[in-house]
Write a structure and sequence with these properties.
By secondary structure, the chain is an alpha/beta fold. The chain has seven helices and 32 strands.
């Protein structure tokens, strides 16, 4: 018996199943719409033509670059429809938004990406209203202006992903403009000129929302407790770089138990940190409340449950009182801690030095006092340490030489005394050291000549004695 050649059988199999696929073609009207879109901005395209495959001699637009099509609706059909256009960065110059009109004839579209195209003018309201099958719409990083067309975008009830970031959109967030988008998972309106308040009920129906970014606008008013409190699936919330005022709504944010990223920085938020406001957010990894007007003390248990927290920034506020020992004792995964430019007093709690993954620690410009503990040497992953402009006294602990990954050390403008530790030269990765404006005595340790990466050194304003070491002049970058 003659055995069949497996290679020939495999080729026959692929030919049998793939030949019909290759014969599928898009409807003629969709092909013509795409060609009309290409020709309408032909004079303003760059010399590089990403739409070179779009030409009338090619009968099947499903084979064109940046175009995807559906499979035929049944086995007897040889046609498919265009469902995806990935037209990012196809125009190298400004393109008026009315040139998008031909695309609105392709009502089968499910994905439309027009990001990074220098599109200017308002969002074509009527046009997008026709694309009721859209699941993914990306108009980010263009020059779109005008307001968000609430009614027309409201027809896009199947939307899962909407990105309008990096434009010049103005006006307010539509009060009910997103209430029909119950399937929305990702909403990004960041880096625009949106003003007014966050509507109380504007996001209330978006139960599936995972990512909400309103940062970099001119939004004012308070954070609506009820409006955001219903978004129980939210993982990423960014309201930074706005003009939001009022207090942090304890109950509203407390319901967001799945939140991983919360950024409220660079606003005008005042009042105290909620006593239990972050207690339920035990999945939180990133928390930034910096550059606000938050006052009062850090609640003793305010961060105690945030055992997954990696990044915590409370800098540039008016927070006072002591740094709570219990509040930071459970933050074992902390990598970045910034508490600078507040009004903290008392000593640094020893529990803080249990954070073995800590790489960035800035407690500068506060009213902290007492001795620097030897436990500081436990932070062996530390790359930046700034305790500048406090009231620390006594000597620099010798254990500081254990911080072999340290790149920046700033202990300036304190009341530190005694001699500089003799083995400080073990900090071989150091490129910046500031010990100025203290009461340090003795000479410059000889081990410092091993700091060959150093490009900034400040020892002024101390009580150092002896001659200036000749090897200091050998540092090429100083």
């Amino acid at each position: 018996m003659v055995m069949a050649n497996p290679s020939l059988l495999l080729q026959s199999f692929f030919l049998f199943f793939l030949l019909p696929c290759l014969s599928w073609s898009c409807p003629e009207y969709q092909k013509q719409a795409l060609l009309q879109f290409k020709s309408s901005f032909l004079p303003i395209r760059s010399s590089f033509d990403p739409l070179d495959s779009w030409n009338s001699s090619s009968s099947n637009c499903c084979l064109w670059d940046m175009v995807t099509c559906s499979s035929p609706s049944n086995s007897n059909s040889a046609s498919s429809v265009v469902i995806g256009l990935y037209l990012y960065f196809v125009s190298g110059q400004h393109m008026p938004s009315n040139l998008l009109a031909p695309l609105f004839l392709i009502r089968s579209l499910r994905v439309l990406d027009l990001s990074w195209n220098f599109i200017n003018g308002p969002i074509p309201a009527v046009g997008f209203g026709n694309l009721s099958n859209l699941v993914h719409l990306d108009l980010s990083w263009n020059s779109i202006n005008g307001q968000i067309p609430a009614l027309e975008l409201g027809n896009l009830s199947n939307l899962v992903h909407l990105n309008l970031s990096g434009n010049s959109i103005n006006g307010q967030i539509p009060a009910l403009g997103f209430s029909n988008h119950s399937n929305l998972v990702h909403l990004d309106l960041s880096m625009n000129s949106i003003n007014g308040q966050i509507p109380a009920l504007g996001f209330g129906n978006l139960y599936n929302l995972v990512h909400l970014d309103l940062s970099g606008n001119s939004i004012n008013g308070q954070i609506p407790a009820l409006g955001l409190g219903n978004l129980s699936n939210l993982v990423h919330l960014d309201l930074s770089r706005n003009s939001i005022n009022g207090q942090i709504p304890a109950l509203g944010l407390g319901n967001l138990g799945n939140l991983v990223h919360l950024d409220l920085s660079m606003n005008f938020i005042n009042g105290q940190i909620p006593a239990l406001g972050f207690g339920n957010l035990n999945n939180l990894v990133y928390l930034d409340l910096s550059r606000n007007s938050i006052n009062g003390q850090i609640p003793a248990l305010g961060f105690g449950n945030l055992s997954n927290l990696v990044h915590l920034d409370l800098s540039w506020n008016s927070i006072n009182g002591q740094i709570p020992a219990l509040g930071f004792g459970n933050l074992n995964n902390l990598v970045h801690l910034d508490l600078r430019l507040n009004r903290f007093n008392g000593s640094i709690p020893l529990q803080l030095f249990q954070s073995k993954y800590l790489q960035y620690l800035d407690l500068s410009s506060n009213c902290l006092s007492g001795e620097l503990p030897e436990e500081i040497g436990n932070l062996t992953k530390l790359q930046r340490l700034s305790l500048r402009s406090n009231k620390f006294s006594n000597g620099i602990p010798s254990s500081i030489s254990y911080l072999r990954e340290l790149e920046e050390l700033d202990l300036g403008n304190n009341s530190l005394s005694m001699e500089i530790p003799s083995d400080i030269g073990n900090l071989s990765n150091l490129f910046s050291m500031s010990l100025g404006k203290n009461k340090l005595t003795g000479g410059v340790p000889a081990s410092m000549q091993k700091l060959n990466k150093l490009n900034s050194l400040d020892l002024e304003g101390n009580l150092l004695t002896g001659e200036i070491p000749f090897w200091l002049f050998d540092f090429k970058d100083l």
